């Protein structure tokens, strides 16, 4: 009779567990020994991959506001990205931004405090300064007068230095008000659309069809007095349409973004949406173009003065100096060279600055 292995076994007794496989056969079940000497079988040592997500809900962050998000892999700070912050980090390493800024600082100092560059009065003129060996000539550069004299016997160096004030004033004044008009009209046109857009756009097209030089000549010829305000006004009338178009297209692009729709859904007014969301994110193309336009306006002022329809004597302008030298270029080249050189460097500085700003503010060019 075969013995029944189940004989004598209580059916209600619990079954004994089946023997486990050897731990050494499974990498997963290999015991780990902690620092306290306690064996933990079948558990992996946890990895420190925690990320600090900023202040907790229970209280303020002890690191203070604006603390960087850090990872345990190297504790490298993660900065919040922004258009203007990224642009500044790129600009301060760009030599084509640093060089024009340094030149413009020098020109601005010449315009604000010309006495720091020369101690001579540009209006102190004496024809006797041009008498050489009993003959009335125009003296060129010499000791005490690095740029020589002009036809009237005025110190040419002091006149060139004082000429920076007029050129910068007209350029900055014209572009400031042109940008203001462009931002207001462009924002209204792009944001509201409909008949407002059509009316503003058609009016800008009419002004844009008139060449700025021709329009300036027509306006200035109708005025009896042609000083800095009059020349600035004449150039302002015809210099804003291009910036308005840039602002309009930028607003049309930005107003379709999700954050603008979210602000509108939260009940923000049109004025608040324009001020807080659209203008800060849509001004970059206008700033770039306005920077370049300053140099263009300065060159246009010199052109109008050279043609005899710009500033009038006794104003001190590089354009007037170049105009006075046009019949004496071969005989006395210094009359043309020095004011033209200062004018070219100033215009070129604004163009270089505008190009650097464009490269920094346009993400597609990074």
Written overview of the protein:
The chain has a single domain, classed as MetI-like fold (Orthogonal Bundle). 52% of the residues lie in helices and 2% in strands. The protein contains twelve helices and four strands. A two-stranded antiparallel ribbon has the order 1-2. A two-stranded antiparallel ribbon has the order 3-4. The longest helix is centred in the middle third of the chain and has 37 residues, at 156-192. The radius of gyration is 37 Å and the shape is elongated. The model is unreliable at 17-29, 31-46 and 48-74 (pLDDT under 50).
What is the topology, as strand order, of the major beta sheet?
Answer: 1-2
Reported by name, the CATH topology is MetI-like fold
Task: State the CATH architecture.
Answer: Orthogonal Bundle
- In N-to-C order, the SSE pattern is EEHHEEHHHHHHHHHH
SSE inventory with pairings:
Blueprint: E1 32-33, E2 39-40, H1 83-91, H2 95-112, E3 131-132, E4 135-136, H3 156-192, H4 194-208, H5 212-221, H6 228-236, H7 241-254, H8 258-265, H9 270-282, H10 284-306, H11 318-324, H12 334-361
Antiparallel strand pairs: 1-2, 3-4
Relevant terms:
elongated, MetI-like fold, 12 helices, single chain, 52% helix, 366 residues
Short description:
The protein has 366 residues and is mainly alpha-helical.
């Amino acid at each position: 009779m075969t013995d029944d292995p189940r004989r004598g076994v209580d059916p209600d007794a619990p079954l004994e567990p089946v023997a486990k496989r050897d731990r050494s056969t499974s990498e997963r079940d290999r015991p780990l020994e902690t620092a306290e000497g306690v064996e933990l079988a079948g558990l992996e040592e946890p990895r420190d991959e925690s990320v600090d997500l900023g202040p907790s809900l229970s209280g303020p962050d002890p690191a203070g506001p604006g603390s960087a998000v850090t990872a345990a892999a190297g504790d490298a700070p993660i900065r919040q990205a922004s258009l203007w912050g990224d642009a500044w980090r790129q600009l301060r390493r760009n030599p084509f931004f640093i060089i024009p800024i340094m030149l413009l600082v020098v020109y601005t100092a010449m315009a604000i405090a010309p006495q720091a560059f020369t101690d001579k009065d540009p209006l102190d003129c004496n024809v006797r300064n041009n008498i050489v060996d009993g003959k009335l000539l125009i003296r060129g550069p010499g000791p005490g007068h690095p740029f020589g004299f002009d036809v009237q016997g005025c110190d040419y160096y002091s006149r060139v230095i004082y000429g920076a004030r007029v050129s910068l004033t007209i350029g900055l004044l014209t572009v400031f008000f042109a940008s203001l008009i462009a931002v207001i009209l462009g924002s209204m046109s792009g944001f509201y659309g409909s008949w407002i857009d059509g009316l503003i756009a058609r009016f800008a097209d009419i002004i844009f069809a008139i060449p700025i030089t021709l329009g300036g000549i027509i306006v200035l010829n109708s005025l009896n007095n042609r000083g800095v305000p009059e020349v600035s006004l004449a150039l302002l009338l015809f210099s804003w349409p291009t910036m308005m178009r840039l602002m309009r297209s930028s607003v049309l692009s930005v107003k379709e973004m999700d954050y603008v729709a979210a602000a509108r859904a939260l009940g923000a007014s049109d004025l608040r949406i324009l001020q807080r969301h659209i203008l800060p994110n849509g001004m970059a193309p206008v700033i770039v173009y306005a920077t370049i336009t300053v140099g263009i306006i300065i060159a246009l002022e010199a052109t109008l003065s050279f043609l005899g329809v710009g500033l009038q004597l006794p104003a001190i302008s590089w354009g007037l100096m170049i105009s006075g030298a046009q019949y004496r270029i071969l005989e006395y080249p210094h009359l043309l060279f020095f004011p033209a050189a200062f004018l070219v460097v100033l215009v070129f500085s604004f163009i270089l600055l505008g190009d650097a700003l464009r490269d920094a503010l346009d993400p597609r060019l990074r």
